[in-house]
Amino acid sequence: MNVPAVAFEKFGFTYTDRERPALADIAMSVNEGESVLITGPAGAGKTTLCSALNGLVPHFFTGRIRGRVLVKGIDTKRSNIARLSHIVGMLFQDPSDQLVSPTVEDDVAFGPENYGVPREEIQRRVTESLALVRLAGYEKRVPYTLSGGEQQACALAGVIAMRPDILVLDEPTSNLDPLGSSQVLEIVSRMARRHGRTLLVVEHRLEEFVPLCDRLVVMEDGRLALEGAVDDLFSEENARAMEAKGVRLPQVTLLALRLRERGLWPQGKRLPATVEEAARGLAPHLRKGGSPGPGAGGCGGRGGKPVIEVQGLWHVYPNGTPALRGIDLAIAENEFVAIVGQNGSGKTTLVKHFNGLLRPTKGRVVVGGMDAGKESIARLSRKVGYCFQNPDHQMCCRTVREELLFGPGNLKMDESSALDRMAEIAAGMKLEQYLDRGPFQLSKGERQKLAVAAILMMGPDVIVIDEPTTGQDYRMGREMMDLAVRLHREGKTVVVITHDMGIVAEYVDRVIVLRDGELLLDGTPREVFAKPDVISTTSLEPPQVARLVRALADFGLRGDVLTVGEMVEEVSARWAGGA
Amino acid sequence: MVLEYIPGKALFHRLDPRVKMLYFATVVLVVAWWSDPIFLSVVFGAIILILKMSRVPMGLVTSFLRALVPVIVAYFVFNLFLKPHENPHVLFYVIPPGVARFTLGVSVEAIVWSLAAVLRFLSILLTVRTVLLLTPVRDVVLSLVRMGLPPEFGVAMGIGFGYIPVLIDENRKIKEALQSRAWEFEYRNPFRRLKALMRMMVPTLMSTMRRANAIAVAIEAKGFSYNVRGRTWLKELRFSREDYAVMAVFVAVIVGAAVVGSPMMRIATYKFTSGLVLGLVRIP
Hints:
The complex is a heterodimer of chains A (579) and B (284).
Chain A lengths: L5 E10 L7 E8 L4 E5 L6 H6 L4 H4 L3 E9 L2 E2 L5 H5 L2 E4 L12 H11 L4 H14 L15 H13 L5 E5 L7 H15 L5 E5 L3 H4 L5 E6 L2 E7 H4 L2 H9 L6 H11 L13 H8 L23 E11 L5 E11 L3 E5 L6 H6 L9 E6 L2 E2 L5 H5 L2 E4 L12 H11 L4 H14 L15 H13 L5 E5 L7 H16 L3 E5 L3 H7 L2 E6 L2 E6 L1 H5 L2 H5 L7 H8 L12 H10 L6
Parallel strand pairs in A: 3-8, 3-9, 6-7, 7-8, 13-18, 13-19, 16-17, 17-18
Antiparallel strand pairs in A: 1-2, 1-4, 4-5, 9-10, 11-12, 11-14, 14-15, 19-20
Helix pairs in contact in A: 4-5, 4-6, 5-6, 6-7, 10-11, 11-23, 12-22, 15-16, 15-17
Chain B lengths: L10 H4 L2 H17 L3 H17 L4 H25 L7 E6 L8 E4 H27 L2 H10 L4 H29 L10 H9 L2 H20 L20 H21 L8 H12 L3
Antiparallel strand pairs in B: 1-2
């Protein structure tokens, strides 16, 4: 008899301090050697589902259980975390929460040490695991000094060293930059192909992970909303259902759906998830259209009055590393700008000069007529509001109300006008009902809005938002970007730092690409994505549609297509039939 | 400061961490028995020599000593008046006889004694620093576990040290977030400054708690509570021949210091230098 690797039997779980169940009626089994991709919005129960496998639920996170979970036939309720962790290895989202040792090799050894594995065997596993994640030679390094991708690779090596039969990866790339994500993706794809290991991955990035998995599970409100083989879930009907549930479908899948609506995509076939699949599906049906059509041209509204001017900016950190090397740029009033680049390219260092958190080593930064190299941070903060990535680092008051009035109070602003402004902003952000609550009682999405609201209270003309979508689910990220769009429409200058090329393509007027502390590209998204060879030197990847255009270069599609809508028109214009 | 391990391959680097602790014990014992600045200068010189042999940049040592100057001065002055000496040869009075019901004078003996005290103090600090600079945290933890510290404490200590840079980084972020909302930290008045820092309490506590919880989950998921007493360690501590040789040297030093500093010999006490000075300068 073949025991499934994992079996959920009508499993439900309610955390001790909550009323609503986090999981309800989960019935699913995973066979040995299968790889399953789990997706769904924040709060859908994905992490709870993973935690139920190694016993964290219910032995660490306590609560009420219904039904049961069997891991290789063992009832998790009757076992314990330590014993289950030997079977189920788990990688978490944030690498800095899992690296617990002073050196890389100690960290990888940590698991086997706990299980009393003999020293020689530990040594062998450390060497082997580090080689597998391509970190051989990093043994004596301090985990904290590694890049995000390397840290996650190190954490993964630590899980592999325990030799688990089942590997659970809970959003392994959500906290990483594109380079780190592709490192981790590469490792996962190599492991997924290894025979016999059962793999469960929670991810939002279907585009990359779908090709690695056999099965797809979409969760919603603690239940399995859709579940089946990947081929099955990428049928037209199921894809539409996924779209309706707010799953971030790959751009090419959306393209195929939109084309189907016009009767243009071949019927009865599985929809594509990757650029290659889409190109293969489209090529036989397209007419060659001669030379590439002209682009739509620049559309950015530049040329307004500059609000931030950066001239020959250098910044050298005390340890001697130059983080910025001669940056020149000007940002005009009411521009919507994205600053992109790998971690360490100098994005955050640059924007920290806008409100005086950092001072130029050389060069000048002028903000609204003030010399940002000399002016106090407090005075600059009236002009430039800086929203940090993690809202929890910004909450310092007892109530939401105090939190909102904190900035104006520090600036000694007139109290009645501050209260007026609070009423207005709280209403606009739907925070009114929370004014007397503690900031930490809000949900993460609400806390992030509160952080922005607290910055807006100081009335800045320029809003800098640092990575509004990193570590967020699709819906929360979208809400943040919609907020940014609103602020822009109200006349604010908006600067976002982001890794998400989808955001860049869809939202902003202008992209500034940094590489190694230098300005590499500066233009409209169309102009920037039309230079794929330059972008590729930063390991940033243009959106799928832009890559599809390149893959179909022979057909003479317009070179600067960025969105699904534009692509639908381009393809329709060249459709040769055969649907 | 705590995590400034400097990798290297010199003799002291190679030693077993327990031998390095014996080194520390040796210095403590020697400076406890000896109170003469000339003898103590030799000890101090030896400590510097060990640092030099281990290729520690001298800039690190001098900056460390420079930072200590105020403490050293205070310690010196404090020691001038701490110990009553028999038949002191007073150089000058801070409170001369007749002014108050007691006198306060500075004698040759007191100066020599204070010099010795400062040298003792510096020797011990510099030894601690030497051991920390030349021993990876893991080895410190491991030798403590070997000497009887329960393994769970050892692991916790290792995690604690490992997270110091992460916490420093997080603290910086919290500070910058508050500064971006016009909160002022740079006060001259230390009390106002402290009050300003208190604002960081809530976000710091929240993020520390969140992180502590996440770490607890992560180590549980790696089987930490499987069988703590039976856990093994990747690195094993074993004494090498070199270790035994060095230990023998340290033991010899301890014995020698005890003999030289013993009440019978009375050579390495501060009276040696005071006598020398008095003999040379002939103060009545």
